[in-house]
Automatic annotation (TrEMBL):
Xref: Pfam families: p450
Cofactor: heme
InterPro entries per record: Cyt_P450, Cyt_P450_E_grp-IV, Cyt_P450_sf, Cytochrome_P450_monoxygenase
Record carries keyword NAD: no
Keyword entries, A-Z: Heme, Iron, Metal-binding, Monooxygenase, Oxidoreductase
Organism of derivation: Colletotrichum trifolii
The protein's name in its UniProt record: Cytochrome P450 monooxygenase FUM15
Length: 319
Protein backbone atom coordinates (compact mmCIF):
# COMPACT_ATOMS: atom_id res chain seq x y z
CA UNK A 1 0.00 0.00 0.00
CA UNK A 2 3.02 2.24 0.69
CA UNK A 3 1.13 4.48 3.09
CA UNK A 4 2.67 5.30 6.46
CA UNK A 5 -0.05 5.62 9.09
CA UNK A 6 2.62 6.38 11.75
CA UNK A 7 0.64 4.29 14.22
CA UNK A 8 3.72 3.43 16.29
CA UNK A 9 4.13 7.09 17.24
CA UNK A 10 0.66 8.55 16.77
CA UNK A 11 -1.76 6.61 18.96
CA UNK A 12 -4.45 9.21 18.32
CA UNK A 13 -4.59 8.42 14.61
CA UNK A 14 -8.19 7.92 13.52
CA UNK A 15 -7.43 4.41 12.28
CA UNK A 16 -6.13 3.41 15.72
CA UNK A 17 -9.13 4.97 17.46
CA UNK A 18 -11.60 3.02 15.34
CA UNK A 19 -9.52 -0.14 15.53
CA UNK A 20 -9.27 -0.12 19.33
CA UNK A 21 -12.96 0.72 19.66
CA UNK A 22 -13.83 -2.49 17.84
CA UNK A 23 -11.04 -4.94 18.75
CA UNK A 24 -9.80 -4.00 22.24
CA UNK A 25 -11.27 -6.57 24.68
CA UNK A 26 -14.05 -5.58 27.06
CA UNK A 27 -17.04 -7.22 28.70
CA UNK A 28 -19.39 -4.91 26.80
CA UNK A 29 -17.95 -5.99 23.44
CA UNK A 30 -18.24 -9.67 24.30
CA UNK A 31 -21.88 -9.16 25.19
CA UNK A 32 -22.38 -7.13 22.01
CA UNK A 33 -20.86 -9.96 19.95
CA UNK A 34 -23.15 -12.53 21.57
CA UNK A 35 -26.20 -10.36 20.89
CA UNK A 36 -25.11 -10.04 17.25
CA UNK A 37 -25.11 -13.80 16.96
CA UNK A 38 -28.55 -14.21 18.48
CA UNK A 39 -30.49 -11.33 16.93
CA UNK A 40 -30.80 -9.97 13.38
CA UNK A 41 -28.13 -7.33 12.77
CA UNK A 42 -30.72 -4.76 11.67
CA UNK A 43 -32.19 -4.92 15.19
CA UNK A 44 -28.85 -4.90 16.99
CA UNK A 45 -27.71 -1.78 15.13
CA UNK A 46 -30.74 0.11 16.48
CA UNK A 47 -29.70 -0.38 20.10
CA UNK A 48 -28.69 3.12 21.33
CA UNK A 49 -25.21 2.36 22.64
CA UNK A 50 -21.87 4.02 21.91
CA UNK A 51 -20.37 0.83 20.51
CA UNK A 52 -22.94 0.80 17.72
CA UNK A 53 -21.73 4.21 16.57
CA UNK A 54 -18.19 2.91 16.23
CA UNK A 55 -19.43 -0.21 14.44
CA UNK A 56 -21.14 2.03 11.89
CA UNK A 57 -18.49 4.75 11.59
CA UNK A 58 -15.45 2.44 11.67
CA UNK A 59 -16.21 0.45 8.50
CA UNK A 60 -17.28 3.67 6.75
CA UNK A 61 -13.99 5.39 7.59
CA UNK A 62 -12.01 2.33 6.54
CA UNK A 63 -13.93 2.04 3.26
CA UNK A 64 -13.29 5.71 2.41
CA UNK A 65 -9.61 5.34 3.30
CA UNK A 66 -9.20 2.29 1.07
CA UNK A 67 -11.20 3.81 -1.77
CA UNK A 68 -9.05 6.96 -1.82
CA UNK A 69 -5.88 4.84 -1.70
CA UNK A 70 -7.04 2.66 -4.59
CA UNK A 71 -8.06 5.69 -6.67
CA UNK A 72 -4.78 7.49 -6.00
CA UNK A 73 -2.63 4.46 -6.81
CA UNK A 74 -4.61 3.64 -9.98
CA UNK A 75 -4.18 7.22 -11.20
CA UNK A 76 -0.44 7.06 -10.47
CA UNK A 77 -0.09 3.81 -12.40
CA UNK A 78 -2.09 5.05 -15.38
CA UNK A 79 -0.09 8.29 -15.59
CA UNK A 80 3.21 6.49 -14.84
CA UNK A 81 3.67 8.98 -12.01
CA UNK A 82 5.31 6.47 -9.69
CA UNK A 83 8.82 5.17 -9.17
CA UNK A 84 9.33 1.74 -10.74
CA UNK A 85 10.81 0.57 -7.42
CA UNK A 86 7.43 1.23 -5.79
CA UNK A 87 5.40 -1.24 -7.83
CA UNK A 88 5.77 -4.32 -5.65
CA UNK A 89 3.34 -3.41 -2.87
CA UNK A 90 0.13 -5.38 -2.50
CA UNK A 91 -2.16 -2.63 -3.77
CA UNK A 92 -0.12 -2.01 -6.93
CA UNK A 93 0.04 -5.72 -7.70
CA UNK A 94 -3.74 -6.09 -7.37
CA UNK A 95 -4.44 -3.10 -9.62
CA UNK A 96 -1.88 -4.07 -12.26
CA UNK A 97 -3.21 -7.63 -12.43
CA UNK A 98 -6.56 -6.24 -13.69
CA UNK A 99 -8.21 -9.35 -12.27
CA UNK A 100 -10.26 -7.51 -9.65
CA UNK A 101 -12.94 -4.88 -10.09
CA UNK A 102 -12.39 -1.66 -8.15
CA UNK A 103 -14.90 -2.51 -5.40
CA UNK A 104 -13.34 -5.93 -4.95
CA UNK A 105 -9.91 -4.32 -4.65
CA UNK A 106 -11.26 -1.95 -2.00
CA UNK A 107 -12.80 -4.87 -0.10
CA UNK A 108 -9.49 -6.75 -0.18
CA UNK A 109 -7.64 -3.74 1.25
CA UNK A 110 -10.26 -3.41 3.98
CA UNK A 111 -9.68 -7.04 4.90
CA UNK A 112 -5.91 -6.63 5.18
CA UNK A 113 -6.18 -3.38 7.15
CA UNK A 114 -8.94 -4.46 9.53
CA UNK A 115 -7.93 -8.02 10.41
CA UNK A 116 -4.66 -8.63 8.58
CA UNK A 117 -2.22 -7.41 11.22
CA UNK A 118 -3.80 -8.14 14.60
CA UNK A 119 -4.31 -11.77 13.59
CA UNK A 120 -0.65 -12.20 12.64
CA UNK A 121 0.51 -10.38 15.77
CA UNK A 122 -1.63 -12.67 17.93
CA UNK A 123 -0.38 -15.81 16.17
CA UNK A 124 3.21 -14.61 16.46
CA UNK A 125 2.78 -13.99 20.18
CA UNK A 126 1.36 -17.46 20.71
CA UNK A 127 4.22 -19.01 18.71
CA UNK A 128 6.77 -17.29 20.97
CA UNK A 129 4.88 -18.47 24.04
CA UNK A 130 4.74 -22.08 22.85
CA UNK A 131 8.43 -22.12 21.93
CA UNK A 132 9.37 -20.73 25.34
CA UNK A 133 7.30 -23.45 26.98
CA UNK A 134 8.99 -26.08 24.79
CA UNK A 135 12.73 -25.21 24.77
CA UNK A 136 13.79 -28.47 23.09
CA UNK A 137 11.62 -27.66 20.06
CA UNK A 138 12.96 -24.10 20.05
CA UNK A 139 16.53 -25.46 20.02
CA UNK A 140 15.69 -27.72 17.06
CA UNK A 141 14.21 -24.75 15.21
CA UNK A 142 17.34 -22.67 15.76
CA UNK A 143 19.46 -25.55 14.47
CA UNK A 144 17.29 -25.89 11.36
CA UNK A 145 17.54 -22.18 10.64
CA UNK A 146 21.30 -22.12 11.22
CA UNK A 147 21.87 -25.09 8.91
CA UNK A 148 19.89 -23.64 6.02
CA UNK A 149 21.12 -20.04 5.95
CA UNK A 150 21.98 -17.51 4.72
CA UNK A 151 18.61 -15.90 4.04
CA UNK A 152 18.99 -13.47 1.16
CA UNK A 153 16.09 -11.21 0.25
CA UNK A 154 15.36 -12.49 -3.30
CA UNK A 155 14.58 -16.06 -2.21
CA UNK A 156 13.97 -15.81 1.53
CA UNK A 157 10.25 -16.62 1.31
CA UNK A 158 10.87 -19.72 -0.82
CA UNK A 159 13.62 -20.92 1.49
CA UNK A 160 11.56 -20.47 4.66
CA UNK A 161 8.66 -22.28 3.04
CA UNK A 162 10.94 -25.29 2.50
CA UNK A 163 11.92 -25.70 6.18
CA UNK A 164 9.90 -28.59 7.67
CA UNK A 165 10.09 -27.83 11.39
CA UNK A 166 9.48 -24.10 10.97
CA UNK A 167 6.31 -24.77 9.00
CA UNK A 168 5.21 -27.51 11.39
CA UNK A 169 5.54 -25.09 14.31
CA UNK A 170 3.48 -22.49 12.46
CA UNK A 171 0.81 -25.07 11.56
CA UNK A 172 0.54 -26.28 15.14
CA UNK A 173 0.39 -22.73 16.51
CA UNK A 174 -2.47 -21.92 14.14
CA UNK A 175 -4.25 -25.12 15.15
CA UNK A 176 -4.06 -24.47 18.88
CA UNK A 177 -4.62 -20.72 18.63
CA UNK A 178 -6.63 -19.86 15.50
CA UNK A 179 -6.46 -16.09 15.09
CA UNK A 180 -10.25 -15.95 14.74
CA UNK A 181 -11.64 -18.49 17.24
CA UNK A 182 -15.17 -18.28 15.84
CA UNK A 183 -16.61 -17.28 12.49
CA UNK A 184 -20.02 -16.93 10.90
CA UNK A 185 -21.32 -17.92 7.48
CA UNK A 186 -24.76 -17.26 6.00
CA UNK A 187 -26.50 -20.11 4.18
CA UNK A 188 -26.77 -19.15 0.50
CA UNK A 189 -29.62 -21.61 -0.04
CA UNK A 190 -31.75 -24.11 1.86
CA UNK A 191 -29.42 -26.88 2.98
CA UNK A 192 -28.81 -29.46 5.67
CA UNK A 193 -26.05 -30.12 8.20
CA UNK A 194 -26.35 -33.78 9.19
CA UNK A 195 -29.96 -34.04 10.41
CA UNK A 196 -30.47 -30.30 10.90
CA UNK A 197 -32.34 -28.34 8.23
CA UNK A 198 -30.69 -24.96 7.58
CA UNK A 199 -32.95 -22.50 5.71
CA UNK A 200 -31.49 -19.94 3.32
CA UNK A 201 -30.26 -16.84 5.16
CA UNK A 202 -29.53 -18.68 8.42
CA UNK A 203 -26.34 -17.68 10.20
CA UNK A 204 -24.13 -20.68 10.94
CA UNK A 205 -21.67 -20.05 13.78
CA UNK A 206 -18.54 -22.19 13.72
CA UNK A 207 -16.10 -22.53 16.60
CA UNK A 208 -12.73 -22.99 14.93
CA UNK A 209 -11.16 -23.21 18.37
CA UNK A 210 -13.34 -26.19 19.38
CA UNK A 211 -12.83 -28.03 16.09
CA UNK A 212 -9.06 -27.55 16.18
CA UNK A 213 -8.92 -28.97 19.71
CA UNK A 214 -11.49 -31.74 19.35
CA UNK A 215 -10.26 -35.03 20.82
CA UNK A 216 -12.50 -36.86 18.37
CA UNK A 217 -10.37 -35.40 15.56
CA UNK A 218 -6.93 -34.89 17.09
CA UNK A 219 -6.81 -37.59 19.76
CA UNK A 220 -6.25 -37.45 23.51
CA UNK A 221 -3.40 -34.94 23.16
CA UNK A 222 -5.48 -32.45 21.19
CA UNK A 223 -4.55 -29.62 23.57
CA UNK A 224 -0.81 -30.33 23.49
CA UNK A 225 1.75 -28.53 21.33
CA UNK A 226 2.97 -31.26 18.96
CA UNK A 227 4.57 -29.82 15.81
CA UNK A 228 6.10 -33.22 15.01
CA UNK A 229 2.60 -34.44 14.13
CA UNK A 230 2.91 -32.26 11.01
CA UNK A 231 6.15 -33.99 9.94
CA UNK A 232 6.40 -37.14 7.84
CA UNK A 233 9.61 -39.05 7.15
CA UNK A 234 9.87 -40.72 3.75
CA UNK A 235 10.76 -44.43 3.94
CA UNK A 236 14.13 -45.21 2.45
CA UNK A 237 15.37 -41.66 1.94
CA UNK A 238 14.71 -40.44 5.47
CA UNK A 239 13.73 -37.06 4.05
CA UNK A 240 11.39 -35.09 6.30
CA UNK A 241 8.58 -33.01 4.86
CA UNK A 242 5.47 -31.27 6.13
CA UNK A 243 2.18 -33.14 5.80
CA UNK A 244 -1.22 -31.47 5.46
CA UNK A 245 -3.11 -33.25 8.25
CA UNK A 246 -1.13 -32.89 11.48
CA UNK A 247 -2.03 -36.40 12.56
CA UNK A 248 -5.76 -36.02 11.96
CA UNK A 249 -7.72 -38.31 9.65
CA UNK A 250 -7.84 -35.82 6.76
CA UNK A 251 -6.51 -32.45 5.62
CA UNK A 252 -9.78 -30.61 6.28
CA UNK A 253 -9.48 -31.10 10.06
CA UNK A 254 -7.34 -27.98 10.55
CA UNK A 255 -9.92 -25.28 10.00
CA UNK A 256 -8.16 -22.09 11.11
CA UNK A 257 -8.66 -20.48 7.68
CA UNK A 258 -11.70 -22.54 6.64
CA UNK A 259 -11.74 -24.42 3.33
CA UNK A 260 -13.42 -24.29 -0.05
CA UNK A 261 -14.53 -21.20 -2.01
CA UNK A 262 -15.00 -19.17 1.20
CA UNK A 263 -11.52 -19.87 2.56
CA UNK A 264 -9.80 -16.85 4.12
CA UNK A 265 -8.40 -14.82 1.24
CA UNK A 266 -5.36 -13.87 3.31
CA UNK A 267 -4.36 -17.42 4.25
CA UNK A 268 -1.11 -17.62 2.30
CA UNK A 269 -0.20 -14.05 3.22
CA UNK A 270 -0.84 -14.76 6.92
CA UNK A 271 1.17 -17.97 6.82
CA UNK A 272 4.08 -16.19 5.11
CA UNK A 273 4.02 -13.38 7.70
CA UNK A 274 3.98 -15.82 10.61
CA UNK A 275 6.74 -17.91 9.04
CA UNK A 276 8.97 -14.83 8.63
CA UNK A 277 8.24 -13.55 12.13
CA UNK A 278 9.00 -16.85 13.87
CA UNK A 279 12.13 -17.39 11.78
CA UNK A 280 13.46 -13.88 12.41
CA UNK A 281 12.96 -14.17 16.16
CA UNK A 282 14.51 -17.64 16.45
CA UNK A 283 17.40 -16.81 14.12
CA UNK A 284 18.47 -13.55 15.74
CA UNK A 285 17.46 -13.84 19.41
CA UNK A 286 17.58 -16.12 22.39
CA UNK A 287 14.29 -15.48 24.11
CA UNK A 288 12.41 -16.65 27.16
CA UNK A 289 9.29 -15.63 29.03
CA UNK A 290 9.80 -12.83 31.54
CA UNK A 291 7.78 -15.00 33.93
CA UNK A 292 8.57 -18.64 33.02
CA UNK A 293 5.76 -19.95 35.24
CA UNK A 294 3.04 -17.77 33.74
CA UNK A 295 0.22 -19.67 32.05
CA UNK A 296 -1.42 -17.58 29.36
CA UNK A 297 -5.09 -17.55 28.44
CA UNK A 298 -6.61 -15.94 25.39
CA UNK A 299 -8.55 -12.70 25.36
CA UNK A 300 -9.92 -10.46 22.66
CA UNK A 301 -13.25 -9.84 21.00
CA UNK A 302 -12.73 -11.10 17.47
CA UNK A 303 -9.12 -12.31 17.65
CA UNK A 304 -7.57 -14.69 20.19
CA UNK A 305 -4.97 -12.36 21.67
CA UNK A 306 -2.79 -13.55 24.56
CA UNK A 307 -4.31 -12.00 27.67
CA UNK A 308 -1.95 -9.19 28.73
CA UNK A 309 0.39 -9.85 25.82
CA UNK A 310 3.55 -11.94 25.75
CA UNK A 311 6.47 -10.38 27.65
CA UNK A 312 9.85 -11.79 26.61
CA UNK A 313 13.47 -11.43 27.67
CA UNK A 314 15.61 -11.07 24.55
CA UNK A 315 19.31 -11.60 23.99
CA UNK A 316 20.86 -11.27 20.54
CA UNK A 317 22.32 -14.51 19.23
CA UNK A 318 25.91 -14.60 17.99
CA UNK A 319 25.66 -15.97 14.44
Amino acid sequence: MRHDFDTLHNHKHQLIQHYDAVFEPSVAKRIFLQINMLLPQRLVMKIPIKLNRFMIEGPGYLHDLCRSSVTRRRDQLESHDINSDHLDDLLSVMIRSKELEEQNTIDQMRTFLSVGHDTTASSGGWAMYLLCKNPSIKARLCAELDENGPYDVPDICRKLESLPLLNAICNETLRLYPALPITVREAACDTRILDTIVPKGTWVIMSLWAINRSRAIWGDRANDFRPDAWLTTEPGTGKVHVNNHGGASHAFSQISFLHGPRICIGEKFARAELRCLVAAMALHFDFELADPDEEKTHAGVFTARPNGGIILKLKRRLL
